[in-house]
Design goal:
The protein is built from two helices and five strands; from the N terminus they run βααββββ. By secondary structure, it is of the alpha+beta class. It has a single domain, classed as YaeB-like fold (2-Layer Sandwich), CATH 3.30.2310.20. A five-stranded mixed beta sheet has the order 1-5-4-3-2. The N and C termini lie far apart (28 Å). The mean pLDDT is 88.
Amino acid sequence: MKVGFKTNELEKLYITPLEELRGKQKFSREVIKQYQAKVRILTFIDNLKELYPIRSLNFEALTGNRKGQFSIRLNKQFRLIIVEVEDDLIEIEIIEISKHYE
């Protein structure tokens, strides 16, 4: 699946190897490591439905003011928020790393 990023910061967190990240980061190294791993999974699938059987991801469609968005658990506190995009270049877009229940 083709993956896009809503912000340059999210793209940089994905493409920069963990050992090359310098300075104070907004997220812990463990959260960044999980983020990179989960985005890599997204690049290997053909559609989002393939994520439902992978219980460790806790993949779910969101409701309420986040209707149309999906989440993947990074750890107990953080989740990755994604949306499907109707675009020739991007099939899904990473929109944020969010604290759970915010």
